[in-house]
Amino acid sequence: MLGKLLTALTLMTASPVVAEPLIIAHRGASGERPEHSRMAYDLAIDQGADVIEPDLVMSRDGVLVVRHENEIGETTDVGDRPEFADRRATRTIDGREVTGWFTEDFTLAELKTLLARERLPQLRPANTAYDGQEPILTFEEVIAIARAGSERAGRTIGIAPELKHPTYFAGRGLPMESALVAVLQDHGLTGADAAALVQCFEVGTLKTLNGMVETPLVQLIDATGGPADLPDQSYAAMITPDGLLAIREYADWVGVNTRLIEPRPCAPTMLINDAQATGLKVAAWTFRAENAFLAEADRVGADPAAHGRVDEMVERFLWLGVDAVFADQPAIAVEAARVMGR
């Protein structure tokens, strides 16, 4: 077996169920329903995912809400709401200028009036049938979805929140770490055996959290660039043996871009072995079925929206020994794990 599931269950009262490797539903079953919607999370659980993943940003009144980014023009109907037209703004976020509508300019009550929509309509046109059906969720509502899903499925459903742009939010007087810890404490998710994985690309945030909770922490690592809070640090340096040892001082996992494990078109790297040798577990992101996201060898046909051989890609990564995969179509990943003998 590959890896080990979170060993204690805090979202339901039954004994914990061990599953390896972890199948993490990336923003829910986001390949089949608008991401971060209740229907996407429920579908992912019903498809067999072990963990559901909410991206966290903040409202003006300091509530953790679930959106891919704090700019919500792409994923809600805010642009169609004349009462919010004057909220459109331009901000610099992690060094990049972004124009749109931002969660930090809205109270939770205002955000709750907005309705979710598909972020990638050109690639996932079927998902647009579900546009306008559900409001934005809070982090606590996703925990409740996981709890209800655990009871419905009779097995552990974990959560893997990702803190988005914490340095930016701190600069606007909205510290994310304390807000996150308060919710984790309220739901008994601060222990080393909690059915939770807390993720972030920023190093300082994870180090702060390491001193506040024992919840497993995941250092996210992209194929290019570096952490927004450490402009002189590169992700490339972080995946060297010395860099991985440094991560192990404050985190339990690394969550890495698949290209760091399987460069295109080169042979697999030693990243999984190097990380696991330091005591870190390895999650790979993101497995998406559409040709647009796949290496040429995994594509089927020329249509960017058509599904390629992502199942074979997942199987390769499981064979290499990855401890978890983030998947937009969790059913495909669950079946690939079954084929591999999970």
Short description:
This protein has 342 residues and is of the alpha/beta class. It is built from 11 helices and 14 strands.
Features:
alpha/beta; 342 residues; single chain; four-stranded mixed β-sheet
3D structure, described in words:
With about 350 residues, the chain is α/β, with parallel strands linked by helices. About 25% of the residues lie in helices and about 15% in strands. The chain has helices at about 40-45, 110, 140-155, 165-170, 175-185, 205-210, 235-240, 240-250, 270-275, 310-320, 330-340; strands at about 20-25, 50-55, 55-60, 65, 90-95, 95-100, 135-140, 160, 160-165, 200, 215-220, 255, 280-285, 325. Strands 8-2-1-14-13-12-11-10 form an eight-stranded parallel sheet. Helix 1 (about 40-45) packs parallel to helix 3 (about 140-155) and helix 10 (about 310-320) crosses helix 11. About 50% of the residues are buried. Mean pLDDT is about 95; it is low at about 1-20.
